[in-house]
Amino acid sequence: MPTAEAHVATDRAGRYLQQLCSHASRLRHGPGHGFRSGRGQAGPSAEATSDTTGRITLGTARCELTAGPTELALRAEADDEQQLRALQEAVTRTLERVGRRDGLTVVWG
Questions:
Q1: For bias kind Gly residues, which ranges apply (predicted)?
Q2: Burial class for 33, CB neighbours closer than 10 Å (0-12, 13-18, 19+)
Q3: DSSP-assigned states of every residue in the chain
Q4: Which of 39, 46, 49, 102 could be disulfide-bonded to 21 (CB atoms 3.0-4.6 Å)?
Q5: Which domains are seen in the chain, by residue range?
Q6: According to the model, what pLDDT value does residue 24 have?
Q7: Which residues, at least 6 apart from 89, have a Cβ–Cβ distance to it below 8 Å?
Q8: Cα–Cα distance, 81 to 97 (Å, whole number)
Q9: How many Cβ atoms sit within 10 Å of the Cβ of residue 72?
Q10: pLDDT tens digits, 54-66
């Protein structure tokens, strides 16, 4: 199962975790700007399970989010590389857009 991780430096990680989950959750039943599902894939789903943890699911791919005092940690996994890339691109595009004022940059490793 392919995986990827990113650590985004920010002192407002909890705020961005909530925004990402809220954005993905709202898009589940309508058109989206960032979280687009591929053919045959269900729309995104998301939940913030606490102030410091959350999950975004796109098809069979999922991204676990963990907010710390100085960073937002992202861990994505999927059944195949294509699904992993689609989720990474959606999370990156959305987080960098909502965090543009703070200059957030997502680099997956």
A1: 32-41
A2: exposed
A3: --EEEEEEE-TTHHHHHHHHHHHHHHGGGS--SS----TTPPPPEEEE-SSSEEEEEETTEEEEEEE-SSEEEEEEE-SSHHHHHHHHHHHHHHHHHHTGGGT------
A4: 46
A5: 3-102 (3.30.310.50)
A6: 85
A7: none
A8: 24
A9: 26
A10: 999 988 899 999 9
CA 60, distance to chain mean position in Å, is 14
- The structure tokens listed for 21 are 């989950």
Through-space distance between the first and last CA atoms of the chain, rounded to whole angstroms: 15
Nearest CA among 66, 68, 67, 64 for reference residue 77 = 64
Token readout for 37 is 């599902």
Contact between 55 and 65 under an 8 Å Cβ cutoff? The reply is: yes
Tokens describing residue 5: 């991780």
Instruction: Answer whether 84's CB lies under 8 Å from 78's CB.
Output: yes
Read off the tokens for 91. 């999370």
